[in-house]
Structure formats: C-alpha cells, structure tokens
Amino acid sequence: SVIIMTQAKEIPAQALYIIVYHMEFFFNLVDIKDFEKTVVTLLLKCYECGVAKLQDLALRQTSFATSNLDYACTKNKILPRLLNACLDQKVEVRKRALKTLSEVYGVFDKTTLNEQVLNILEKVRKLPNNSPIMNRYVLNIFEGSAANLGIENIANRILANMVPFLADQT
Fold first, then answer.
1. 21 near 57, Cβ under 8 Å?
2. Residues ≥6 apart with Cβ < 8 Å to 79
3. What is the rounded distance in angstroms from the CA atom of residue 17 to the CA atom of residue 55?
4. How many CB atoms are closer than 10 A to CB 170?
5. pTM of this prediction?
6. What's the start-to-end Cα distance of the chain, in Å?
7. I need a labelling partner for 42 at 20 to 30 A (CA). Which of 11, 25, 34, 137 fits?
8. pLDDT tens digit string along 27-47?
C-alpha cells in the first residue's frame, strides 16, 4: 500500500514518480491528514533526492499542493524545499523552481515574503548562469511582492534588487 511505501526508508524511483505524478488522484481518495502524511511526504522526498527529473516533478506538483494543503504545511514543509531548489546548482532545477515560486508566492503572508522569499531572491540574483527567463521570474516575484509589503520594504529591498536588472543587457 502507499502508506507502507511512505514509511519505508527507500522507495523505488518509479513508484515515487508515479505516486507524486498522480497526487491529485490520491488527494480525492483520502482525507487531508492522510494525504499530508503519505503523498506530501513523497513530494518532499522528490525535492530532496537530488535527481533532476524527480525534483522537476515535485516542482510541477507544488502549485496543486499549495492550493490544496493547509497554510502551515505549505509554509513549513514545502516552502523551505522550494526555496532551496531556487538555489540549486542545476540550472534547469533552479529555473523550474523560480517558475514555481512565481506561481505560488501569493499564498504567503507578508512576514514570510519579507523574511524568506526576498532573502532567497537576493541570493538568486547573485548566482551565475541565470537566464533572461529566470531573471523575469525573479522580477515578477519582486513586483508581485511589492503589492503586499510596506513602502519601507519596497524602497530598501525590492527596488534595491530590481535596479541591477535594469542595467543588465541580457
């Protein structure tokens, strides 16, 4: 059963992929607490495994997870892994993570945006090999976050980080 698999130390990659790929199906079959204990656990394993294909799958499923799970689970379990993926050494994982973050940042409160999301975006901006599309995702998140943050954060953090993009020719 799926519950037994989630409790195992190791799970075959193919089984992990199939379960996470079909997480919407499982969401409709079990109650939210069982879903968090089983499928979300596997989603988190995909984030942490270091295999680009599984990380990509986790990132693709994050929008569904954040829109259906309670805020505490999203903020405490999924967000830290999503933010770590934004700093991943593999450019494709980082690109997908930034795209996902640009889709889901709106669910987070002001404090989380200010203390966690903006801190990661400041680090992402300084990483090498950021493509124009990755920079666009970062700018979209800065722009959207500005609507939720006070004028002081906009002036000191968001504008300060957006200005270098204006000078960049790429």
1. yes
2. 108, 112, 116
3. 10
4. 7
5. 0.87
6. 50
7. 137
8. 988 888 889 888 999 999 999
